[in-house]
Amino acid sequence: MVIAVSTIIGLWINFTNVDPIKALVYTAVINGVTAVPILYTVMKIANDRNILGNKVNGRLSNVIGWSTVIIMGISVGIMLLTFTY
């Protein structure tokens, strides 16, 4: 079903005036923006002892995870600043 719906949407995009490269760029932008809150949520859950007990993140995982959240957040902020100018 998913493949059929995706094919129909792809055909619809093909017959409209939507540039597929621009659509891919906008999709990547949306994915980058939504990645920050998802990563934040994953890191909060991965460090919650009420949920995971003794299987929480270690020090290295926390450093890498929180660094990723910060770098992605800064990247989204810079991207939004460049869109406004």
Description:
With 85 residues, the chain is an all-alpha fold. It has one domain (19-84). The protein contains four helices and no strands. The protein has helices spanning 2-15, 20-46, 49-52, 59-84. α2 (20-46) runs antiparallel to α4 (59-84). The model has no long low-confidence stretch (mean pLDDT 91).
Most strands sheet: none
N- to C-terminal separation? 42 Å
Subunit organisation of the chains: single chain
Question: Would you identify the regions where 5 or more consecutive residues have pLDDT less than 50?
Answer: none
The total of beta strands comes to 0
Order of helices and strands: HHHH
Structural class: mainly alpha
User: Can you tell me the overall shape?
Assistant: flat
The pLDDT mean sits at: 91
Radius of gyration: 18 Å
Count of runs of 4 or more consecutive helical residues? 4
Number of domains: 1
In percent, how much strand structure appears in the residues?
under 5%
As a percent range, the share of helical residues equals over 70%
